[in-house]
Fold this sequence. Notes:
Blueprint: E1 6-12, H1 20-27, E2 44-50, H2 57-69, E3 73-81, H3 84-87, H4 95-117
Parallel strand pairs: 1-2, 2-3
Amino acid sequence: VRGADGFLWSSxxxxxxxxxxxxxxxxxxELLHADPEPYLHNRVVGLIVTAGGSQAFPAIEAMQAMVRAxxxxxxxxxxxxxxxxxxxxVDAPDARTVxxxxxxxxxxxxxATRLRRG
Length: 118
């Protein structure tokens, strides 16, 4: 994490929020509290949530709050992948979802470069 300028965070939706495993991973960022640039300072995070139905946004909102609490920046584009088993089907992924994921990755890379230049 210390060497990265940008991140893509992804979690499945669990009961209106992120999964426990995702939250536990984020809690380990506490180890960065004493760094010269603590936590996610001047780093950009792209957010992706998968959902079995059509309710991915509550988890995205939870992730946005985590990024802010850790002094990071969220990319303006977020990718809620509703009905994920269909949208990400191995044999026929949804083209709009694939393009949204590609665009998010490009946006995070671009923003990370700009933030690091100062």
